[in-house]
Amino acid sequence: MAIGDNHNDLDMLSFAGIPVVMGNSVAALKTYGWHETGTNDENGVALAIEQFALREAAPCV
Questions:
Q1: How far apart are CA 15 and CA 61, in angstroms?
Q2: Which of these, 22, 18, 21, lies nearest to 42 by C-alpha position?
Q3: pTM of the predicted model, to two decimals?
Q4: Which of 20, 18, 23 is nearest to 42 (CA)?
């Protein structure tokens, strides 16, 4: 997982298995269709960590 908000994060987000864009990011990053989280003021990083890094894995069948 990678979380970014600006043009300099593009390579990192492109490489990540789970790219997450902050709600207050530059508009260009939002055009990739990646996951979007809250803004800095909305604790967006914490929300993304809870949703993607701490979620319970689905059981293997």
A1: 28
A2: 22
A3: 0.86
A4: 23
